[in-house]
Amino acid sequence: MAMFILLTAGQADHVRGPSISTLAAALNPVEREGGVFVLGIDVLVDPSHETHRDFLLALPRLDGSDPSFPETTVWAGA
Q1: In terms of DSSP H, where are the helices of 3-71?
Q2: Which residues make Cβ contacts (< 8 Å) with residue 52, sequence separation at least 6?
Q3: How many domains are there within the chain?
Q4: How many CB atoms neighbour CB 12 within 10 A?
Q5: CA 6 to CA 41: how far, in whole Å?
Q6: Could you list the residue range(s) of the whole structural domain that residue 11 is in?
Q7: Would you say residue 74 has pLDDT above 90?
């Protein structure tokens, strides 16, 4: 399975949004259970997100198949 970068809500807010170098690119961390946010590890090699690379490299990572990987957040009314 794929590797993911784990972020807190504050870290997700820090990187969320459009790329300053590529208009069609944006980072949008996905919320999981427990207030954990995830981004696919492939953003680390995407030149569009170079401004956040060092920040993201310092964050923990987890394989999506790991039993401790946070479950999908269940939205009310969904």
Answers
A1: 9-15, 53-57
A2: 14, 15, 27, 43
A3: 1
A4: 20
A5: 10
A6: 3-63
A7: no
CA distances from 57 to 11, 18, 33, 71 (A): 12, 19, 22, 23
H-assigned helices in the chain:
9-15, 53-57
Q: What is the pLDDT of residue 14?
A: 97
Q: Are 69 and 30 in contact (CB under 8 A)?
A: no
Dihedral of alpha carbons 6, 4, 14, 47, sign: positive
Q: Is residue 70 part of a domain?
A: no
pLDDT at 23: 87
Question: Is 49 inside a domain boundary?
Answer: yes
Reply yes or no on whether the pLDDT at 77 is more than 70: no
| Identity of residue 48 | S
pLDDT given for residue 68 in this prediction: 92
pTM of the model: 0.89
For residue 36, give the 3-state DSSP assignment.
Answer: coil
